[in-house]
Amino acid sequence: MVTTTVHDLESAPEASKPLLENSMKAFGRLPSLHGVMAESPGLLEGYQRLHRLAISGTAFTPEERTVVWMTVNVANACHYCVPAHTGIAKSEKIDAEIVNALRDETPLPPKLEALRTFTLALRESHGRPGSDAIADFEAAGYGERAILDTILIYAQKVMSNFTNAIFETPTDDAFAAFAWEPKTAVPA
Questions:
Q1: How far is CA 40 from CA 33, 44, 153, in A?
Q2: What b/e sequence results for 84-102 when a residue is b if at least 16 CB atoms lie within 10 Å of its CB, and e otherwise?
Q3: Higher pLDDT, 183 or 125
Q4: Is the dihedral of CA 59, 63, 64, 68 positive or negative?
Q5: Left if phi > 0, otherwise alpha if psi is -120 to 50, otherwise beta: which for 155?
Q6: Tens-digit pLDDT profile for residues 34-55
Q7: Are 108 and 102 in contact (CB under 8 A)?
Q8: What is the pTM of this model?
């Protein structure tokens, strides 16, 4: 772990202050993740842009977007993002059974399971999921756009998951009720 400052509007670098103000407007508070990312204005700005694009720039439904977000978060054992996206899913009224299946790594309805399986194949193959994985994804009703949209959301999650792993970002009080532990121990 690397020790860092969880910045606020007073301590943040000047270039990050308007970005943190945007976060506060969007979330009604300052997420700890954004406070950590503020040390690098470019990282925070990139993350915010990808987050907006994940929400409004993909063809995924909120449920499908949640599947990609949570699949990556769980696979990367992100102590911060699993609770955060559980809270986001709850606020978006995503079926609790789907959220629990994602958190617990248990089966989803077939089309959503195909999305999770493809997302994991993308992660595990380092972006080379292979023709069988792509064919299975397409057979479930997804196409080229969904492949590209999955990559976009995956990129966003890499930024947050890696930041949280390295800096052990404290979980926000708003998401403490959704605390989560990975099934298998994470290497130190």
A1: 12, 6, 20
A2: bbbbbbeeeebeeebbebb
A3: 125
A4: positive
A5: alpha
A6: 999 999 999 999 999 999 999 9
A7: yes
A8: 0.93
